[in-house]
Amino acid sequence: MTRNVRIRAALGIMGTILLCSLLGASASAKLASREVRDNLAAGEQAFHKAMELDRSDPEAARAYYQDAILNLERIVNDGRVRNGELYYDIGNAYFRLGDLGRAILNYKRSSLYMPNDPNLKQNLDYARNRRADRIERKEQENVYRTLFFIHYDIPSRSKLIIFAACFAAVWVSAGLRLFVRAGSLKVVLVIAAVASAIFLASLAVDAVSFASRPPGVITANEVTGRMGDADSYQPSFKEPLHRGTEFKLLEKRAGWWRIELASGDETWIPTGSAELVF
Predict the structure, then answer these.
(1) DSSP code of residue 273
(2) Residue range 197-246, pLDDT digits in tens
(3) HSE of 266 in the Cβ direction (CA atoms, 13 Å)?
(4) SS3 2
């Protein structure tokens, strides 16, 4: 990560303190708002110390990064606080530890809350480029992404905002047409209605896809994908899959997940070798 991104990561933790304290006070959290603030302060201090020691004492820096993660993840797991800055900071700490799987996992969680953040996108792309597995998207999906770029390239939260604006424009223009018979209002009404339908359909597809095929990331150092839900089945591939590889979850069985890779290939992996984005 560049120096600017490091500064952004440190400031992100500081900025999260206020937001998380507010959320911690209002949400049905197990941790009190004071405990949330204490964990954030401890995480911030550990993260700053780790960055100071990155070059001079890498081993000590690792311990501080782990301490930062421990405090920040306690806010997520015990405090039930969810926001993009918090996941972004956790992802940065894992990245500094060299854990690409959990770095990518938390960057993707962060993107659910702040999808248009340029520094988050930069860090996520950089982490993806450092993965051991090079899995190409299936050609059919590339075609879909080209034809339906609005659906694939615009984050769900942005689509929700656009839909709300277009839907409001439909009712405003329809109301104005009761009093003003301008042709331009009819054009606005038609365009807003069509745009509302497009973005509503895209949001519906996102919701169904997320619920039926939730995204996940392999977090184990490496895992052998198998043709069935037991170690006795033959491996699906010549090489194991490595941490940071992304997938869609297709099916759950006792101790095993059937997943689909970006290439369209399906395989079974042990449940503990991966985590879902949300």
Answers:
(1) G
(2) 999 999 898 888 778 899 999 999 999 999 999 999 999 999 999 999 99
(3) 10
(4) coil
Stretch (H or E) spanning 102: helix 100-111
Identity of the amino acid at 91? G
Tokens 């999906």 locate to: 141
For residue 27, what are the contacts with CB-CB under 8 A and spacing of at least 6? Answer: 79, 80, 81
Between helix 58-77 and helix 3-26 the angle, nearest 10°, is 30
Which of these, 76, 59, 55, 60, lies nearest to 6 by C-alpha position?
Answer: 55
- 33-42 per-position pLDDT tens digit: 889 999 999 9
Residue 156 structure tokens: 């769900």
Q: What is the 3-state secondary structure (H, E, C) of 24-60?
A: HHHCCCCCCHHHHHHHHHHHHHHHHHHHHHCCCCHHH
Mean pLDDT, to the nearest integer, of 63-92? 94
Q: From residue 12, give the alpha-carbon distance in Å to each of 81, 135, 224, 248.
A: 15, 32, 37, 29
CA distance 273 to 271: 6
Band the pLDDT of 30: cuts 50, 70, 90. Answer: low
Residues whose CB is less than 8 angstroms from the CB of residue 141 and which lie 6 or more positions away in sequence, other chains included: 262, 264
Per the structure block, which two tokens stand in for 174? 């329809």
Element counts in the chain: helices (H) and strands (E): 10, 7
Q: Tokens representing 19?
A: 């937001």
* Model confidence band, residue 24 (pLDDT cutoffs 50, 70, 90): very low
| Strand stretches in 82-221, DSSP E | 215-218
Q: How far apart are CA 196 and CA 150, in angstroms?
A: 13
Q: How many CA atoms lie within 13 A of 183 on its CB side?
A: 0
Q: What is the DSSP string of 224-251?
A: --BSSSSTTSPBSSSS-EETT-EEEEEE
What is the rounded distance in angstroms from the CA atom of residue 171 to the CA atom of residue 168?
Answer: 5
